Amino acid sequence: MLLHGLGATGEVWEDVVRDWHGSWLVPDLPGHGRSGRIDRYSFGSLAAAVAEVVPREPVTVVGHSLGGVVALTLASGWFGVDVTRCVGVGIKVRWTDEELAKAASLAARPAKVLATEEEAAERASRMAGVPVRHGVSEVDGGWAPSLDVRAFGVGRPDLPGLVMAAKAEVVLAAGENDPMCPREHLEELVPEPVVFPGVGHNAHVESPSSVGLLLGQPAR
C-alpha cells in the first residue's frame, strides 16, 4: 500500500507501481483527491480511515511525508492492520513553532475558488509540490483544489514514539537534496536511513525506480 503526502493524490505513485507484478493499493487520503472529508484531521484519524480499506492480510506500507507518518501510525498495530514493513519517504522530523503556526494558519483559510479547472489544477499542484490531475473538484462558482485545507492543521507527529511503537520493520528514506528531511535528522530515528542520490523531497516522483528498489523491484 502506498500513501501520498499532504495535498497530493494516489496518482503520484503511478510510475512506482507501473511495472509492479504483485498486488497493490493506492488510496487517496481523507480530504484529498476523490476521498471524502473527515471531521477532524489527526494522524490517528487518517490511519483509522485508511485501515478500513486494507485487506486483512500482511502488508508493506510505503508513505511519503504525511503519508509516511500515517504509515508509521498503522505500523503500530493499533488499527488492526498487519504491517510487516513500513517505508517512510521524506518525513519531516523537526518542526519549529513558526512552521506549526503557519500550517495552522493555512488550515483556517477558506478554500479558494477559481474560474477554470486548469487554474484549479495548477493551484492544487503548487500546494502538493507535484503535478496532480485528480486533485480538483467543481464547486459553486467554479473550480477548487479537492484538498480540505483543514488537513494542514494535523500538527507535529511524535516520530520517536511511533518508531518505538512500530511492530514492523521500519525503513526511513529521503532524497539527497530534500531540505525538509536531511540525513542527520533521520539518523535521530533510525541508525541507517536510505538516501536517494540527486533528488529532492518528492523522490517517488523524481526517481520512482529508486523507491521501487526498496520494494524489491528490479531496476529499470
Automatic annotation (TrEMBL):
Residues 2-208 form the AB hydrolase-1 domain. Gene3D superfamilies: alpha/beta hydrolase. It comes from the Bacteria. It holds the Pfam family Abhydrolase_6. SUPFAM superfamilies: alpha/beta-Hydrolases. One of its GO terms (molecular function) is hydrolase activity. InterPro entries: AB_hydrolase_1, AB_hydrolase_fold, AB_hydrolase_sf. One of its GO terms (cellular component) is membrane. Keywords: Hydrolase. PANTHER family: AB HYDROLASE SUPERFAMILY PROTEIN YCLE, MONOACYLGLYCEROL LIPASE. This is Pimeloyl-ACP methyl ester carboxylesterase. It comes from Lentzea fradiae.
